[in-house]
Structures
1.
Amino acid sequence: MTTPPTIEQLHAAAAEHADQGRPVPCQQGTPADRAAWTSEDRHDLARAAEQCAPCPIRAQCRAVAVHAQEPTGAWGGTVPGRRGGTGRINTPAVLAALAAHDHPATVREIAAHIVAGTPSPKDRQEVASIAARLVSTGRATKTGAGNRVRYTTTTEQETAA
């Protein structure tokens, strides 16, 4: 098991990106803009977490928050109460798991592929949420209903990921 980065390493990575003229999302804008990451308002936090999507240090940031059991703020695209797990379940992981199946896959199969074992209910919930987003953006298709829902990727480019 790898050791998660420290907060100091996270700050150093953020500073390095800023020095290269590519500040991470939580360090851009006005002080009022940056306050969204530490807000107590769940809507502000949700908006801040969405802005983490293109961040080059998102995975490290989430790992710090998960390891520290950070109870506040938006970290690595997560908000309090939604940080659990290992951070392995994300859009690229779901797309890769879908691509690994030679048949349409269930949420349980996708989650089991990602966690390399028996997925928890939270793992399955995260996969279902991401899969629904992929369907809504046209990056995956959904067939079936109820307990028989299955997903597949929609493009060759993503199945090669």
2.
Amino acid sequence: MPDPDKSRKEGGEGSTQPRQASESPRENAWPAQRAAGPPVLRKIDAVTIPVLRKVDAVTIPVPDLERGLAFYRDRLGHELLWRNDEIGQAGLALPEGDTEIVLTTELGYAPSWLVASADDAAAEFVAAGGRVVSAAFDIPVGRCAVVEDAFGNRLVLLDLSKGLYRTDDNGSVTGVGASPPTDLAEY
């Protein structure tokens, strides 16, 4: 008959002692992780940094910017942050965070995830079992890529490597300014 006190002392079920780590990190992983391999995570100064930083924006398709602004700004009360007629987009503020509503005449409805590097994040999705739908490409404020996760969900990944929009008093984009901080502690 097994000795319940021995099991408790050696890190078994009901033990207050942690179990001994195995030689292979995959043996300690959840079953799905064991089958797929170790997670792909970046380490900076021994701190694991997730790939997705935050939802940067949610694009909402509109037939034209004037009608979109009339609805979202004038009727629903969202403040205009910036407007770029060259690419058919306008950014509006959300009152309880820095995620933006981006009205667009060219893109579909989608959240855009902020990443440190769109190129690197797309590669990390592939290494984790996802796939690239659209390779990273230049956008006015940085780079953008579209990926699918291991379950077929599409994600828009963007970085702000070129900086943030600078605007005039009317919110019209006049250029791109300094890049945002890359240290997550500054976000």
